[in-house]
Design a protein that fits this description.
Helix content is 68%, strand content 0%. With 96 residues, the chain is mainly alpha-helical. The longest helix is centred in the middle third of the chain and has 65 residues.
């Protein structure tokens, strides 16, 4: 009998690889967004309120200046009338 040799070649096995994906979800992710939106909304409303108060203050200041100017004008008219009356009195007393 003849000696027979049988050789079997096997391809190397692919290594076992496992990919694990872990997703972590924050427990308050949605709540934090809502809170931040509310804080932003409050800040915007507060800014608008302060701006409108400044505008009203400017309008009040302008009104006060206008009123003071009118009072000065009225006082100047009174002084002018008094000067005319005094001049008329002087002219009457001097015989003109």
């Amino acid at each position: 009998m003849a000696d027979e040799t049988v050789t079997t070649e096997r391809a190397p096995e692919a290594p076992n690889t496992t990919t694990t994906i872990i997703r972590e979800r924050g427990s308050s992710g949605g709540a934090t967004g809502i809170i931040m939106a509310l804080i932003l909304l409050i800040a915007v409303v507060g800014g608008i309120y302060l701006f409108s108060q400044g505008t009203q203050s400017e309008a009040a200041k302008d009104g006060a200046i206008t009123e003071a100017a009118n009072n000065v004008g009225a006082a100047a008219d009174k002084v002018g009338d008094a000067a005319q009356d005094a001049a008329s009195s002087v002219n009457k007393d001097s015989g003109n």
